[in-house]
Amino acid sequence: MNIGAIKSAIGALIDIGLALLALAIVASLLVGGTLPFFGAVVGNISALVDSLGKGGLVGLITLGIIIWLFSARSPA
């Protein structure tokens, strides 16, 4: 198996994970509360944003890294 195939498989898994995260957020907002299989997604995201906000410069740098990781980049 070559590196390109491995990167493609990892990219596909990440795409599935992000799609499931989006589904969990929408379902949690529609139903409210904690859902089976998804947990408290909105609460966890709120806690993450809160902790990044309290982090000052470190939180801003961390947010930049997270955005860079999830931004659409062409595979090398």
How are the SSEs placed, and which strands pair?
Elements: H1 3-31, H2 41-54, H3 57-70
Helix pairs in contact: 2-3
How does this structure look, described?
- This protein is an all-alpha fold.
- It has one domain.
- 75% of the residues lie in helices and 0% in strands.
- It is built from three helices and no strands.
- Helix 2 packs across helix 3.
- The chain is flat and about 40 Å long.
Features:
mainly alpha; 0% strand
Radius of gyration: 16 Å
Question: How big a fraction of the residues is strand?
Answer: under 5%
Helix content: over 70%
Structural class: mainly alpha
Shape: flat
Describe the largest sheet: none
Averaged pLDDT: 79
- Count structural domains: 1
Low-confidence stretches: none
What is the rounded distance between the termini?
Answer: 17 Å
Oligomer: single chain
Tell me the number of helical segments per DSSP (H or I, 4 or more residues long). 3
- What's the total count of β strands? 0
**Element string (H = helix, E = strand):** HHH
Short description:
This protein has helices spanning 3-31, 41-54, 57-70.
